[in-house]
Task: inverse folding
């Protein structure tokens, strides 16, 4: 089935690390993505990882992929108040252009 | 500002009606994507066009249709509207049609069906 799941909420203190988790179901997914949505705005692509990779780092962002467990995570180091937003993971189905999005995790950063 | 424009910003209509949402991609982008975001269904990919041709279809209802014109702008047509069609509709564009191309999202059109 096509289902991408995320926890709904995460609250962290400014300066701490945030870890947002996602589980997906399609083992043939070629690319997995993380998007950020700020209030009243569209989605912004943060990063993506190819399914044959285990990890990708991009400045404060680290993506970990566990293909065996179909688990994807996004770690934000030194979380700032500007990181408060909803974060969506997404997969492209079997390398096609059909995208499946997770339910979104609302990250709240406390000053 | 992503460079993607969508009109109108808000739309209120009644059940059974038909509406057209418009999207202008970033200059130079050939691909346009449509998404629906609602509380019930979350964020769903509807359809993608690349240089005027349909490239991928997601969970788009038969009552909905889209097209991309020669000037690359796109329209999403929603007909026989139901209460459950109330949602935020996003358009995104990318340079090419690759799954790794960054999609730039517009601000969305909020549709309310009464």
Result:
């Amino acid at each position: 089935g096509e289902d991408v799941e995320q926890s709904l909420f995460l609250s962290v203190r400014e300066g701490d690390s945030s870890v947002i988790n996602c589980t997906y179901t399609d083992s043939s997914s070629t690319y997995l993505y993380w998007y950020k949505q700020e209030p009243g705005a569209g989605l912004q692509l943060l990063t993506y990882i190819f399914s044959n990779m285990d990890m990708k780092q991009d400045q404060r962002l680290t993506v970990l992929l566990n293909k065996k467990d179909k688990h994807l995570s996004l770690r934000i180091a030194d979380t700032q108040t500007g990181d408060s937003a909803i974060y969506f993971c997404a997969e492209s189905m079997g390398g096609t252009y059909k995208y499946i999005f997770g339910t979104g995790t609302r990250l709240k950063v406390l000053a | 500002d992503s460079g993607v424009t969508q009109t109108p910003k808000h739309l209120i209509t009644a059940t059974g009606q038909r509406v057209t949402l418009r999207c202008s991609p970033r200059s130079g982008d050939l691909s346009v994507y449509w998404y629906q975001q609602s509380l019930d269904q979350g964020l769903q990919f509807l359809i993608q066009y690349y240089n005027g041709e349909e490239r991928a279809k997601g969970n788009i209802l038969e009552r909905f249709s889209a097209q991309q014109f020669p000037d690359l702008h796109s329209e999403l047509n929603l007909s026989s509207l139901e209460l459950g069609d109330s949602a935020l509709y996003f358009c995104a564009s990318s340079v090419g049609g690759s799954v790794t191309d960054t999609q730039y999202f517009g601000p969305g059109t909020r549709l309310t069906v009464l």
Remarks:
- The CA atoms of residues 31 and 99 of chain B lie 11 Å apart.
- Chain B touches chain A at residues 2, 4, 35, 42-45, 48, 55-58, 90, 92, 97, 99-100, 102-103, 105-108 (CB under 8 Å).
